[in-house]
Every structure is written in C-alpha cells, then in structure tokens.
Amino acid sequence: MTTAFIILIILVAVFTQSLVGFGLALVSMPLLSSLVNLSIASPLIALVGTAMEVVMVIYYRKSVNIKVVGLLSIVSLLSTPLGSLALDYIDQDVLLVTLGVIVAGYGLYALFNPKLPELNQRWWVYLFGLAGGFLGGSLNTNGPPIIIYGNCKRWNPEEFKGNVQSYFFIGNFAIIAGHVWRGRFTPVVWQNFLFSLPAIALGLAGGIWLSRKIEPERFRKLVMVLLVVIGVQLMI
Hints:
Layout: H1 2-20, H2 24-32, H3 38-59, H4 66-89, H5 92-112, H6 124-139, H7 143-152, H8 157-181, H9 187-211, H10 216-235
Helix pairs in contact: 1-2, 1-9, 2-3, 2-5, 2-10, 3-8, 3-9, 4-6, 4-8, 5-10, 6-7, 6-8, 7-8
C-alpha cells in the first residue's frame, strides 16, 4: 500500500511541474516524508526529477540562457555536497521543520506575488546559487531560491521555464552524486523509482497536454494553497 501512495504522490508532483514549470520536490517531499524516511525520499525524487527533466529540457530548449544557467549551476555545485552531508548529521525532525518552513514560505510568496527588487549586482547569483545547491543536496528543494532569483532578474515566462528546467536538470546530477557518495541508493529507492516510471510518463504527458488547454495560473494558485497547508503541518 505504501508503494501505491508513493507512486500516486509522484504522479501528482510530476503533473504539477510539467503544467506550471515547477513543484516536483515542493509537492512530493512533504508528502513522501510522512511515508518514508528522508534518506529514501530525497534520492528517489532526485531520480524522478532527472528522468522528467530530460523531457522538459528538450521541450524548452529554445528558451534557455546557457550563460545564466551555467553560472548558477556551477555555484550550486559548491554547496550541494554540504547539503547531502547535512541529511546524515542533522536530526530528521529539524529537517522536516525546515522543509515545512520552505514549502509554506514559498507557497505564501507565490500566492501574494510581491514585487521584488531587480537584482543587478553579480554577487546575488552566488547567494542564490549556494542556497539552491544546499537545499537541493539535503531536501531536493533547490527550486525556491532559483525561482525567486529568476523573478528578481525579470526573466520572461518562456526564459523562466527554460532556465529553471535546465538548472534542475544539471543540479539533479550533482544531487545524485551526493546520494551516491552517502550510499543512499538502496534497493528500496530503486524499486520505488522503477515502479514509478509509468506515473512519471503519465504525469508528464498530462501536464504538457493540459498546459495547452487551460490557464495554468489557476492550477498554480491551488497548488500554492496546498503547499501552505502542507508546510504548516510539517512545522507543528
């Protein structure tokens, strides 16, 4: 029964990301943490993310700013190993509360969509890149810092999707390397990943198809409300 719930969670999370451009880890990690240990959930979602990002990067390849993505990715590589190490040495309850703060905080940010200042100084890329790398290595949640950075840099919608998907794709290899280093790719992780492959394909196809039929903004707002609720539950 646990495997069935894991597959369902991955289906919903993949569908969300393919529809609105992000959300895989933000949706899946809080829900999976109620079923399995973070040392299982984190490498599992790293594998799922890599599999789906192959398709997403190809789909948005014409909108990618290679220079921007390359610099963010290089900076993130410096802190990803620290995040992976933190997963072994920081108490899981502390990490779950941290995950709750990140998920709920991002949900609130995305719902109210405050006008952020435009970041022109080059050093900001290092701050957001390091934050993304650390959160990716530990909790697979490298998205929020990069999404906020993209908003501050005023990326247009197509450039935003292309850059974010490419960053996730590159970052996932560093995250996977960290999990290999810490020996987290156990038979349980591989089994759940293989069982989830049909759900990944279905979620990708459904999200991409529906993104052409409906206004993704309405779905995005619903997801953000759910993220706030899930995040608060993790904190209490």
